[in-house]
Write a structure and sequence with these properties.
Length: 118
Amino acid sequence: MGTAARLFLLFFCGLLLSAHFLRWGNFFLAMASLLFPAIVFFRAPWARIAAWVFCGFGAITWATVAQRFIAERMLAGEPWTRLAVILGAVASVNLLAGALLCGARMRSWFRLPERASD
């Protein structure tokens, strides 16, 4: 997977999180989630750490939302399996976006030194 695809996935996660916050009326978090992935264009080592934190925050947010919605559906006696699969997949995409920032391509993007071979 190329660098552009990895960055696209990060921006896609930001877009999904922004839509979630906007749906609940939190304009500040919606704008922050939409704009925060642009931090990777600083191409500094600290930007990669900030992007990891953002992806982790997104995954935790989606897991929390899933838990809350599933509990509501279970109490109402409504089906909840599809909801769990969809929100679990969205949380997993956030984790995947964070994990893809660890690869060798992204090390060069963020101008990190190459690892010493053993």
